[in-house]
Every structure is written in structure tokens, then in C-alpha cells.
Amino acid sequence: MDQSSEAVTDAIREALAQTEDNKQRVAAAIAAFYDYVANESGAFRLVFESDLTNEPAVRERVDRVTDDCAAAIAEVIQQDTGLPREASLLLAVSLVGMGQVSARFWLSGSGADGTITQADAAALVAGLAWRGIRGYPKES
After folding, report:
1. DSSP secondary structure of 63-127
2. How many whole angstroms separate alpha carbon 62 and alpha carbon 52?
3. What is the spatial distance between Cα 27 and Cα 4, in angstroms, rounded to a whole number?
4. Is residue 92 within 8 Å of residue 77, measured between CB atoms?
5. Within a 13 Å sphere around the CA of 105, how many CA atoms are in the beta-carbon half?
6. Backbone CA torsion sign across 88, 53, 14, 131
7. Which of 29, 35, 139 is nearest to 92 (CA)?
8. How far apart are CA 94 and CA 40, in angstroms?
């Protein structure tokens, strides 16, 4: 579980480090969630859909994935916008939730019947996320 959790967190960090262009960062981060759930190993199920998530130790590890991904994204938001840490973290958690939940929905729903490809699904959600987050201007 720890290795699987680290994989998605590392993918998000890599997505953020690839470029200084925030539109591309959003697209890469959303794509990272889609890549993670589409991985044939099914590792995401271990992290997000385990029957053991009611166990406090397991729940803490699952929550850590969201927290670590959100912390990495919040750092970029705070640096670029000058928003307080708490506000940046709230926006980041929202973006992480959008990526996680939509990717899992795609895998179990519309993506499973082939009507929306993984790339198209990730692009749709990235477009939605970008249209929202770009409203927070970069600081001069």
C-alpha cells in the first residue's frame, strides 16, 4: 500500500516539476491520476477502494495520499497567487479530489465501454480544472 501511495504522489510531484506553465501542470496532474487508475496492476484499488479503509492505520495511509498530493499542489498555488497557505491547500484538495474521483468514475463508468478514451477524459477534466484555477492570478 505504501509503494502504491508513493507512486501517485511521485507522479503528481513530477507533473508539477515538468514545467512552469500552470495550464500544462494542471493537465499533467490530472493525467497522472488517470494513468494511476488505468494501470493494469489495479494498485489504485488497494489505496482508494480497499475494504480495510475503515481500519485507522489504513485510513491514515489513504488520507496521506490526498494530503501529500494536495500539499505539493498547494505549494505551487501559494507561490503563484500569494494566497494564504490554508486557502491554497483548500484549492489544492479540490483539484486532487477532482482528479481522483473523476478518474475512478471514468474507469468504472464511461471509460469502460470505450465511449471516452483515457486521454479525452483527462483532457476534459483538466480543462474544467484549468478554467477554475486560472481565475487566481499569478503574482507579479
Report:
1. HHHHHHHHHHHHHHHHHHH---HHHHHHHHHHHHHHHHHHHHHHHHTTTTTTSS-HHHHHHHHHH
2. 10
3. 21
4. yes
5. 9
6. negative
7. 29
8. 26
| Phi, psi of 118, deg, nearest 5 | -60, -45
Reported as type and span, the H/E element at residue 29 is helix 22-38
DSSP 138: P
- The answer to whether residues 31 and 126 touch, using CB atoms and an 8 Å cutoff, is yes
CA gap 45, 35 in Å, rounded:
13
Each residue of 5-16: b (16+ CB within 10 Å) or e? bebbbebbbebb
Identity of the amino acid at 11:
A
pTM of the complete model: 0.83
Other CB atoms within 10 Å distance of the CB of residue 39: 13
pLDDT in the model for residue 37: 84
Q: Is the dihedral of CA 131, 136, 137, 140 positive or negative?
A: negative
Task: With a cut of 90, say whether residue 19 has pLDDT above it.
Answer: yes
pLDDT at 67: 93
